[in-house]
Design brief:
Elements (H helix, E strand, L loop, with lengths): L2 H29 L11 H12 L13 H16 L2 H8 L8 H16 L15 H23 L11 H14 L4 H25 L3 H18 L3 H17 L5 H17 L7 H31 L24 H8 L11 H31 L6 H6 L1 H7 L4 H7 L2 H10 L2 H16 L10
Helix pairs in contact: 1-11, 1-12, 2-3, 2-5, 3-5, 3-12, 3-16, 4-12, 5-14, 6-8, 8-9, 8-10, 9-10, 11-12, 12-14, 14-18
């Protein structure tokens, strides 16, 4: 086993242990009112969960050859790792048995192995489509302007920048505006998500990559606009994540996956000591960021497991277009609201990741089914970007990592724009692809080691 692999495994092990410490020392004291509780589970259960969380680091890619490897890595960090111990911590804290979660952890482990297996297949070669750059980029800009016009028309006077204390109010107002708008809510929703999750990140990425600040500023301003529309933090978080990803893929000292696993380990460590930080604002920001990004996905796996073990599965009937398969036992009510009500918060929509949603649909088999679908999506994504320097779609589609860790696969694929992003990258003109490849070759000649590490 090479030294690079050992550094990655050590980073993953550090992250697993530090994230557990962050939950116990930083999250529970500040956020217990949201249901984050803790009591020592049985030692053997704790050990098994910890070892299961570390195990995939033995085979995970530690070099960046395909853009989906970033999404695979983020899924590991944000969903799989907390999913291996959060159900145990929560059950013990509530005085419930922990043994029923062992099959869940075993299934999660199998899902990670399934996702890794698709990288053993050669990349699919899709037929080439020739589009002239002026046609492609003009279409993008026209479509973007139309989308902005639709959103502006729908929200009109409801667009305003608000502080953190007014976010909840502004969000509720935004929902009411969409419900009362003459423009169908589905059209407004697609305009918002496709532009904020796909178009703006693409423009910002090309602005950074090709040193065109106007592109970056246009995309960043658009994200601020969408925050002003309904106070959603995700568009602003996208800008930060995109810049961090750009810096990560351009540096040449440490392999990209190793850098990220050690970086999130450091963030977890900061969260663990956050109660001792001198500034209350820093304490809240760090603990909230870790809680929202790296704790909630694993927490909801346990919540969904408990609810749908005691209540009927949906057999995918809660997904639009699949109602003919089986009658929806929850009468069309979004599962997020069903779970929110079960937690005593009926106004909260507790949407979960693909594995929690898969369990809600078909139990452990459902988790495997959605994993196969995600593996196929990753495979298609890599095929669509085969002629492009993989670092570009990693940066441009970085936000999809946040999406797939917080939403069911069908919502992430269609409603939040992952499918649209794949199509755009497949259609990007050949001249752009060639420029990207030439830049990559130049980087290699000057010693840039963006693919440092083992295959």
């Amino acid at each position: 086993m090479g030294s690079n692999r050992m550094v990655f495994i050590l980073g993953a092990a550090s992250y697993v242990v530090l994230l557990q410490a962050a939950y116990i020392l930083g999250i529970v004291p500040s956020w217990s009112y949201l249901g984050f509780v803790f009591k020592d589970p049985p030692a053997i259960i704790w050990l098994l969960g910890t070892l299961a969380a570390i195990a995939p680091s033995i085979w995970m890619p530690i070099s960046l050859h395909r853009p989906s490897q970033w999404l695979y890595l983020f899924l590991y960090l944000s969903v799989y790792v907390p999913g291996c111990f959060m159900p145990f911590f929560r059950a013990a804290g509530l005085g419930q048995p922990t043994d029923p979660y062992l099959p869940m952890i075993a299934t999660l482990f199998g899902c990670m192995a399934l996702l890794q297996a698709q990288y053993s297949f050669p990349q699919l070669r899709l037929p080439e489509v020739r589009i002239r750059p002026p046609v492609f980029w003009s279409s993008i800009m026209i479509g973007t302007i139309v989308a902005y016009a639709i959103v502006y028309k729908a929200f009109s006077g409801g667009i305003q920048l608000v502080g953190s204390e007014e976010i909840a109010r502004h969000r509720l107002e935004g929902r009411e505006i969409i419900a009362d708008s003459a423009i169908p809510a589905i059209i407004v929703g697609y305009c918002m998500t496709y532009v904020s999750n796909v178009i703006n990140p693409l423009l910002m990425t090309f602005g950074l990559w090709y040193r065109r600040p106007g592109f970056f500023l246009f995309g960043a301003a658009g994200q601020i606009f969408f925050y002003a529309v309904n106070a959603a933090r995700a568009p602003l978080a996208t800008v930060v994540l995109l810049v961090l990803l750009f810096i990560s893929v351009r540096q040449n000292r440490v392999s990209f996956p190793t850098l990220w696993v050690w970086s999130v380990a450091l963030i977890a460590a900061l969260c663990a000591v956050s109660p001792q930080l001198p500034f209350e604002g820093a304490q809240n920001l760090i603990s909230w960021a870790v809680m929202r990004t790296f704790i909630v996905p694993g927490y909801l796996i346990g919540v969904y497991h408990d609810f749908f073990t005691a209540n009927p599965h949906t057999f995918f009937s809660h997904i639009t277009g699949f109602g003919w398969i089986h009658a929806n036992p929850y009468q069309g009510k979004p599962l997020g609201l069903v779970i929110g009500a079960s937690l005593g918060r009926p106004d909260d929509q507790e949407n979960a990741n693909l594995w929690a949603d898969g369990f809600a649909s078909f139990g452990y088999l459902g988790m495997l089914i959605v994993t196969v679908l995600l593996a196929a999506t990753f495979y298609l994504f890599d095929a669509a970007t085969r002629r492009i320097d993989p670092r570009i779609p990693v940066v441009a589609c970085g936000v999809q990592g946040l999406i797939i860790t917080n939403l069911p696969i069908f919502t992430a694929f269609l409603g939040s724009g992952f499918c649209f992003a794949i199509i755009l990258f497949y259609l990007i003109p050949k001249q752009t692809q060639t420029t990207a490849v030439n830049r990559r070759e130049k980087d290699r000649r000057v010693g840039h080691r963006e693919f440092k590490g083992e295959a």
